[in-house]
Design brief:
By secondary structure, this protein is mainly β. The chain has one domain: Immunoglobulin-like, CATH 2.60.40.1890. The chain contains 1 helix and 10 strands.
Length: 171
């Protein structure tokens, strides 16, 4: 029986050792000891402030809510909302023409990159459908906003002490 001996030259051994020790070109490496930022839905979510909602009787079919959304990142879109205080929350747009207003449900509300979106009666707003309880002035109602980026933001809406668009009163 004849035996074969595998002979490798020193440069070949060094190349083989480097190939096994280094990641392929273009692959990222992560230092396991380095702290990693937690990826939370709210971490990259646009900021929301000034949430206001109209008063509503328990079971009222629809009441409108407004909020200001500040986006420090790339363009995004508000694609949904939910609240434990309503059967559903629908995104709406108001189209103002010479003939008056037309309100339509929309699938998304664009949020500009590094910009501000102010929801109001003459632009976009959130429609809380079938209030689960009375929304009385001074009360706070919460909703979670969902964005196309996957981010989410919990928003506190103050029940206004009167009907109408709070933006009209400069609130």
């Amino acid at each position: 029986m004849k035996t074969h001996t595998l002979r490798l030259r020193l440069p070949t051994l060094v190349s083989l050792a480097l190939a096994l020790a280094l990641p392929p070109a273009g692959c990222a490496t992560v230092d396991a000891a380095a702290p990693q930022a937690a990826a939370t839905p709210e971490a990259a979510a646009p900021e929301a402030s000034g949430g206001r909602i109209q008063p509503a009787a328990a079971g009222q079919f629809e009441t409108w809510a407004y909020v200001t959304i500040r986006n420090a990142g790339a363009a995004d879109a508000l694609v949904g909302a939910q609240s434990p205080d309503a059967a559903s929350v629908v995104l709406r747009a108001t189209i103002v023409t010479d003939a008056g207003r037309t309100v339509r449900s929309v699938a998304a509300i664009p949020v500009p990159a590094r910009g501000v979106l102010v929801l109001g009666a003459d632009t976009y707003f959130l429609a809380f459908i079938q209030a689960r309880h009375a929304f009385v002035p001074g009360q706070h109602i919460q909703a979670t906003l969902r964005f196309t980026s996957g981010a989410q933001r919990v928003v506190d809406f103050l029940v206004a002490d009167r009907e109408g668009d709070p933006a009209d009163a400069g609130q």
